[in-house]
Amino acid sequence: MEMQQLLSMGFSDELAAEALAATGGKSTLQATEWILAQRSSSSTSPPAAAAAAASPNPNAGPNPNPPPFQPKLDRFFHFHSRPSSNPSPPSPPPRTEARPRDGSPTPTPPDAKRPRLFLPQNPQSVVPGGAAEGKVPSPHEPLAERMRPRTVDEVVGQDHLLGGSSLLRSAIAADRLPSIVLWGPPGTGKTSIAKAITNSSSRATVYRFISLSAVTCGVKEVRDAVEEARKARAKSNKRTVLFMDEVHRFNKSQQDSFLPVIEDGSIVFMGATTENPSFHLITPLLSRCRVLTLNPLKPHHIVSLLKRAIGDSEKGLARSADMNVEAKVDAVEFLSANCDGDARVALNALEISAITAAMRVSTQRSKLKGVKESSDGNLLEDVENGIGPLAAIVTLDDVKEALQCKHLAYDKAGDEHYNLISALHKSMRGSDADAAIYWLARMLEGGEQPLYIARRLIRFASEDVGLADPLALNQAVSCYQACHFIGMPECNVILAQCAAYLALAPKSISVYRAIGAAQKVVRESVGQNEGVPLHLRNAPTKLMKEIGYGKGYIYTPDNPQAAQSYLPPSLQGYKFLDWPSVNAHEK
Length: 587
What we know:
By secondary structure, the protein is mainly alpha-helical. Helices cover 46% and strands 6% of the residues.
């Protein structure tokens, strides 16, 4: 990259190579200053020597009109400046032959010996929305932020929302965006879709985009944004898209502030949430918005995004590592398979991997610095012999180090928490021990508390196993106590044993149905609940006996065959418990 930059400034191949060899080949700025210093020196510069030879007075002193002082190039030289719109390169100065230290002429190396340079694949790419302003993405922005899609055509993995006949496509084509709530896991493109929709309008001046986050703002910021939106619409008839990230963090009264402005059309509301809107957003807001669900990205979607980041020289990895970056196929495939459908996780890990690879290249160049200085200044031959790599190569070990462990989408208080415990419960109910152990492992790896799982196993032991295997409850209670004693990670096998036992045990929901039916009768009985029959009442005092408490009660141990009723008169003969019922899968 340094060689190419020097050539683009008009220096010859030999002079650029000599400058890079003299300065270590790590900084284009240092190499440029070295060249200028050599040219300004009257003792070594070829133009100065020629002028001295043509001078009529060889004993004359130094040139009374020396060249002006060359300032530092920090404020003129930009490594990542936007490419010029003029496709023709600047005309190079007259060719200057570089000479080795012994003064003998060095022939110009043929083109076949020149180093292979990795040129940018798309030098005209710019940041989303920055083409008109000429903005260039900052290398300090995370890679995931720089690589956001500019239009809906660049969005990957949500074809059910952005297909040819979808609601959003039709709304974009008609410039009539509805208010929507984007619901999906992290890293699936909620914010990217909102920005891309605004940029994809058939008329670029139709919408203004204001982005807020419920984490850092309140109702005041919302009111200010709405006031700006009303002024813009009155002045230039521009509609405003108000994007509220993490909208579920607003409480009920804060969410109420959106209702009137959505109703009167002051803004087009777009909310993004990772939580179930049914539980976290108020009903009036849901009534005014369409809820669109985003799916986790598939591995081939992630591969497409990673390749895009590697190949984009303007916004991609080259800006993060300050050099050309390549990645091995197995490294990309490993990232795509272990990010759990989260594009942000994959891009962040790729960026860290690229920085690691770039540091490795820099270290190799530093170690070879002495070799370069002793090679007669011929950097081209050094590169041809394998000294000084031209690009950083991201390997499988780099991405494993960056990712550390497989990313799991799990929230101990969110949807995945309830989804996984439901999957565990239903797998045990269906007597599938393998599935039960798998969902248990997913919860444990996600960081779930083992005692929560143990409590759910105790409930299952009575609800789904019940009287078919009364020992199941003992097993579940013992599992809870053992998990309390030793904790994680040792208690994982105890939870797995209990889950497998419950999955393989015979099932009966008779007790579960019986208590449910009895409670329903108690709640729905007409009139006042009947009192306990007198013969079932205890009579510890003389007065209670005189009233009739306990009269007619038959002591069962003495009369095991005696018939006696125990339900109130209105429920005589009513059956709540249907037993025996082994392996009943009625539920």
